[in-house]
Design goal:
single chain; 135 residues; mainly beta; 4-stranded antiparallel beta sheet; 1 helix; 55% strand
Length: 135
């Protein structure tokens, strides 16, 4: 019985707990980080959160949604002036790192910056491809 009690926390521990970061400028003081966390190993979904940071004025964590742990893409758009839009699974969030606020809903605004993509073994950020030059 004692061994079972010692193993119980291990059985309840999640398998996924990782993150990917987008650097908004050349410093590490303005970033957007998407985290995924699996609460139970048997769950196919996980908690996705956003950590918005623009030092020294903004540092806040926002709950995004419960999303599939694998093959999930969170798109990132920039509207300039420290305003960002994120979209995943038909949901949209708007984040402003100037005032450190977030709102949900509405439509995407701005130009695509890149994607946070959750795969089986990692989550990463890939910048959007540059538009082709006009001929």
């Amino acid at each position: 019985m004692r061994k079972l009690l010692l193993l119980t926390p291990l059985l309840l521990a999640g398998c996924y707990n990782d993150s990917a970061t987008f650097y908004a400028d050349s410093s590490q003081e303005h970033t957007l980080t998407v985290r995924r966390q699996q609460d139970y190993f048997w769950s196919g979904d996980g908690r996705f959160t956003l950590v918005a940071m623009r030092q020294p004025d903004c540092l806040r964590r926002y709950e995004l949604a419960e999303l599939p742990l694998e093959d999930t893409t969170v798109e990132l758009y920039s509207d300039g002036d420290n305003r960002w839009s994120l979209r995943a699974a038909g949901q949209v969030w708007h984040v402003e790192t100037q005032t450190c606020t977030m709102t949900a809903g509405g439509s995407i605004t701005g130009e695509k910056v890149g994607d946070f993509h959750a795969e089986i073994d990692r989550i990463g950020f890939a910048e959007a491809a540059a538009p082709a030059p006009a001929k």
